[in-house]
Amino acid sequence: MNEDIPHFNGNARMIDLPIVSDPRGDLTFMEGGRHVPFDIRRVYYLYNVPVDSERGGHAHRELEQVIFALSGSFRMKIDDGTTQADVWLRNPRKGLYIKNMVWREMDNFSQGAVCMVLASHFYDEADYYRDYSEFLAASQAA
């Protein structure tokens, strides 16, 4: 079941992935355009993140993402220019879908946390808002 984050109008929501369980363990899978609402163009992951580090601190003009905690946990702080929310990721079957034009920050990484990100586009530095005030002005102009 996919669950909207309150007041984000579908711009951020939790995505539950299928699970296949048997005595040998659990298997979870995802397919672009089916479980993830876009074709996957890039996958990357963060690991060995010091527990007091902060990551993210940007928004994207076009790119959409689904973010998972494959191991451990961390907090996602999301902001669409009007509404802010904190979302804790700690279940590898549950990903946070973030549409474009949503500012994101990550912190409170547990020891050994692994964060995997599925992205709708290839890397393009021109797609980033790295200055919050520039993002805020653009989000309120839309």
Automatic annotation (TrEMBL):
Q: Is Cell membrane among the key words of this record?
A: no
Q: What is this protein called?
A: Sugar 3,4-ketoisomerase QdtA cupin domain-containing protein
Species assigned in the record: Tateyamaria omphalii
Q: Tell me the ranges covered by the Sugar 3,4-ketoisomerase QdtA cupin domain, including all copies.
A: 11-138
Keywords assigned: Plasmid
